[in-house]
Design goal:
Radius of gyration: 49 Å
Shape: elongated
Structural class: mainly alpha
Number of strands: 2
Number of helices: 4
Strand content: under 5%
Distance between the termini: 149 Å
Order of helices and strands: HEHEHH
Length: about 210
Amino acid sequence: MNEKLEKRNASKKKKPTFARQDSNKYAFKSKWRKPRGLHNKRRLNKKGHQKNPSIGYSSPKEVKYLTKEGLSRIIIFNIQDLEKVNKEKEIVVLSSKVGIKKKLQLLKEIQKKGLKVENIKNIELYIKEKESEFEERKKQKQKKISEKEKSKKESLKKAKEKEGEEGEDKQKEIKEEVLSGKQELKKSKDVTLKKDTTQAKASHQASSVPGAKQ
C-alpha cells in the first residue's frame, strides 16, 4: 500500500496539465474537450504537441481517490456522520451545503474527537473569525432595530403634532364661519329695520296730506 502511494505521488508530479485545444488563443472554461478534426495533430498524438489524457496516467485501484497520506475522504453533513468516521483510515470533508452556524458546531466536535479536516487548514482561527463575524452581524441588527424604533416614534410624534395643528386650524375656521354668519345676520336685520321705517314714514306723510285716502 505504501509503495503504491509513493508511486502514485511520484507519477502525479510528472503528470501534465491537460489544457483544452486552442486554450492559448481563446478564453475557454476549465472543462476538457476531446480534440476533433481530420488533420488534428493533437488527436493523432504527434510529437511536439500537447498530450491527451489516457488510462496510463491513472493511479492504481487500491490507492485511487486517496489523499497523500493514504486516507479516504468522507463528506459530512451532520453530527451523526462524525460517529462513523475512523481516525486512522479516513479524513473529514465538510459539505459545501452546510451553513456556517452548523459548520462551527461540527468543527467544535471534530476538535474534541481529534479528527482531521481537509477543507479547513486551521480550525481554531476559522472558528474565531466566524464567531467575530456573527457578533458584528448581531450588533448591526440591533442598531437597525433601534434606528427603526426611533424613526417610528418620530413619525408618530409628527403625526400627532400635525393632527393637533389641523384641529386648531379647524377650530379657527369654525369660529370664523360662526362670526361671519353672525355678522351677516346682523346686517340682514339692520336692512329689514331700515326698510320698515321708511315704509312707515311714507305712509305717515301720505296720511297727513289733505284729501288723501288711507
